[in-house]
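Input sequence (372 aa), recorded before submission:
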Amino acid sequence: MAKDKGKGARKDGKKSKGKGKAVALEEKSSKAAKVKAAKVKDSKVKPAKVKPAKVKPAKAEEATGIAAETVEVGAAPEVYELPLDVDKVDKDLRPDRPISEVLRVGAGFTLADFDASSTPGFDGSPKDGEKALAAYAPEIGEWQERLFAETKGGGTRSLLIVLQGLDSAGKGGIVRHVMSNADPAGIKATAFKAPTEEERQHEFLWRIRKALPGPGQIGVFDRSHYEDVLIVRALNLAPRTVVGRRYATINAFERGLVAGGTQVLKVFLYIDKDEQRARLMERLDRPDKHYKYTPGDTDNRAHWDAYMEAFQVMFDRTSTEVAPWYIIPANNKWYARYAVQQLLLEKLRAMDPDWPKPDYDVEAEKARLAVS
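Predicted structure, token format:
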């Protein structure tokens, strides 16, 4: 839930540049990546090579004005195919089964029936969850470094994590705790606030494209393009017909990202109304947390039901095959962080980046260096 009216979203009541025109999406990118999913056993991975191929993206909705086309997939860099250099994680700290299978939003999902205090896929205690978070951190770090290194061999792939959630759901904590072992040089984090005057002069995806991760980067969106179908719908900031067209535009946009080599991981952190009240009250009770609170946080609670409806429609309309939503029960912060970590690991393991081979003779360079 956004903190105040207009936070992270646009009104589209006024005319603006680019409004009413079909959005030129990333689906026309000349490069894309076809990825083989690699199975991980005891945190030791044998990476698979990615071969050049042609893929045909799914046809975009008529509302976007985009026709399906054949996209040439760029050749993967030549790599060493080395196993991960990380320690084995104790069995008790591993998920019962892939978290993606447990938390994926599928047909028939109903937010009103979801338990925000549950811990699906993990039977351990909070202390076990914290141990697991620490135990898997090195693997996150190595995968992220491999993805970044891949660009030195000509790789162009990237990963985008979209974090949505209610006020005080813990989006900021996810970035700090889950990405703690990652190299900041390979992370591009963006927190979307109320759009600037310049951003209002463009269609709603304009500022999103500017913040996308570059080759080898992991991008993290704290709020995202989804604010333009959430707060705008919940607070009636634009006609429903305008909001309705955006779902198809977003789906086509995300298909284009995936076709162009950017994997998309969409995570919704869900806390219930009582938990949100408790967290907001803690911010008011603690001077060191006052900066996190705004009066708009409490104002928005009056629109709780409208937000729940907007979230449900978002899930129904935009949880797709190429970019599904994963809903995280986030009343327990330790579980939310663990679940997001596992989802990220699954994505990185499937992408399977590896150390690129250099374009120089290693032995010759050793000899030169020895006599220098």
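Checked by second reader. DSSP finds twelve helices and seven strands in the chain.
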